[in-house]
Amino acid sequence: QVQLVESGGGLVQAGGSLRLSCAASGRTFSPYGMGWFRQAPGKEREFVAAIRWGSGATYYADSVKGRFTIARDSAEITMSLHMNNLKPEDTAVYYCAARDRTSAYASAAGYDYWGQGTQVTVSS
After folding, report:
1. Cα gap 38→83, rounded to integer Å
2. How far apart are CA 51 and CA 71, in angstroms?
3. How many helices and strands in the chain, by DSSP H and E?
4. In terms of DSSP H, where are the helices of the chain?
């Protein structure tokens, strides 16, 4: 019954910034953690960032560390991804995901719920 909806994607120039958001359909869901994944054409879905809901601990892929920041609003079950200094290689469909179990945070298989995705395009 859990639904996730992403928003905030768009077209930006290299070096620009963008903020993505993800919201759950209701406030009854209490995730163990949430995360962001992305998938570019011809490539597999890859881990971007994750956050543990209880502790607030964050995890980042090496490719985005120092440029992206993940955050959560526990009261509303919402999550954001602040992306700075964007590069053309960041171009992809970005998906938010949630898990309610102690699965691996960096593996897509560890997540139980997914949004439809939002397109991020970075021009050079």
Report:
1. 13
2. 7
3. 0, 11
4. none
At 84, list the tokens.
């700075």
Please provide the DSSP assignment of 31-49 as one string: -SEEEEEEE-TTS--EEEE
Using alpha carbons, select from 46, 58, 57 the residue that is nearest to residue 89: 46
Smallest Cα–Cα separation from 105: which of 57, 62, 72? 57
pLDDT digits (tens, 9 = 90+) for 57-108: 999 999 999 999 999 988 888 999 999 999 999 999 999 999 999 999 999 9
Strand 118-123 to 10-13 pairing: parallel
> Beta partners for 45?
none
Residue 49 near residue 64, CB atoms below 8 Å: yes
CA distance 23 to 3: 8
